[in-house]
Amino acid sequence: MELNILESTKTRLKFEIKGEGHTFCNALRKELWQGKNVEIAGYSIEHSLVTEPVFVIETDKEDPKKLLLEATTRLQKKNKEFITNFKKL
Questions:
Q1: What is the rounded CA–CA span in Å between residue 89 and residue 86?
Q2: What is the CATH number of the domain that holds 78?
Q3: Total tally of structural domains belonging to the chain
Q4: Beta carbons of 15 and 6 less than 8 angstroms apart
Q5: 47-89 residue pLDDT tens
Q6: Adjacency order of strands within the sheet including 54-59
Q7: Do 55 and 38 meet the contact criterion of CB atoms below 8 Å apart?
Q8: Which residue, among 8, 63, 61, 70, has the nearest Cα to 33 in the 3D structure?
């Protein structure tokens, strides 16, 4: 996965996620909304065959990069828990 930063300020981050689609973007969006200080977390895909998802995160006061890192860490933890539980079946 590769990120291409399109815009970065103290409270706003806009980036492309190369090689991903709705599955990952929806999971990330939902996880970002679980964090504190998130005002906007969403993405758009103009056309699934020719464009990359563009994600926007806006916060009221925290660094959006920090919130993105926290959300991805939580997703990794949930993924590991899922794999562990799946293997028990």
A1: 5
A2: 3.30.1360.10
A3: 1
A4: yes
A5: 877 789 999 999 999 999 999 999 999 999 999 999 999 999 8
A6: 2-8, 12-18, 54-59, 38-44
A7: no
A8: 70
